[in-house]
Specification:
Blueprint (H helix, E strand, L loop, with lengths): L7 H8 L8 E5 L3 E4 L4 E2 L17 E9 L4 E8 L7 E7 L12 H13 L3 E6 L10 H19 L4 H4 L2 E11 L1 H13 L9 E7 L10 H5 L10 H11 L18 H5 L6 E6 L5 H13 L4 E6 L6 H4 L3 H18 L1
Parallel strand pairs: 6-7, 6-8, 8-9, 9-10, 10-11
Antiparallel strand pairs: 1-2, 2-3, 4-5, 5-7
Helix pairs in contact: 3-5
Amino acid sequence: MGTIAVDPSLSLQIGRGSNQHGAVVEEIDGLIKVYKDGYVERPLIVPHVSTALPPEFGVIAKDVSIDKFTNIWARFYVPKCSNSGRFPLVVYFHGGGFCVGSAAWSCYHEFLARLAANASCIIMSINYRLAPENPLPAAYEDGLKALLWLKQGALNGSVEEWWQGMCNLSSVFLAGDSAGANIAHNVAARSITNSLKPLILKGTILIQPFFGGEARTDSEKYMDQSPQSALSLAASDTYWRLALPGGTNRDHPWCNPMAKGWTKLGEMRLPPTLVCVSEMDILKDRNLEFCAALAKAGKRVEHVVYKGVGHAFQVLSRSQLSQTRTLELMAHIKAFIS
């Protein structure tokens, strides 16, 4: 995500007393400021909401702690009734360039509740640690920890029974949008070296996956972006500077999985992958290159391009076209996990 409009009065309130932290060394307007002494400001531009949902959604939501020490938690979304046995489980990671966002953001709360209902699945939305305070691989470690928490709960019966009895742990999918899709991909790769039984990872769902590289793609160089675009090239570069380990660049494999060619992907044991691409997204070309590299490496991959919409349309845009494309996205996810 890039620049989002914010109330100017909020900026004035946030600015008071900021000089004590020195100069601003990194900034994405309206989203994050990092000061010379390491202090980080994140304006509250998206409301944090409780688990409450309108009855017509037909979904129950509840927050569950995974690791109190690192403050990792998850928000579960469970359809109220099932006519077809147990639901598949989708473990979801929110977007935000690894640096902003929350499982409690109102835009994700609404989107994931609707997705749980429309795609007939249980969703576990992970609230992971953010950069720059916790640079990568912290978010990947948190994702894997969430899977191991699920595994342990299934083995010893300690997982919350209110949803476990409705969940098919032999049909687990990792999903996310933007940076969350990057996390889903990297957690999938890491999970292969960890036995997750009785969990069975069936696939990954990558919505506008946030990848990068030192060399620019055509869509990064030439895609027209409005001032309200959810991801600009400048914001993308800033997110990567804040998220990657010190001394690395955008050809680090966590940012650019194709940096060493498709053969590196060929060495990874990956489940079937669905990639959802936005036509007006600066990441479009990079997402399509990723799909081609997966296919060349012999991986099962399918992709869909959503016409006329940009990055994060499913959570940040209220246009009629975006709402139509969001319903299409949910239908494609439902078909993939069925």
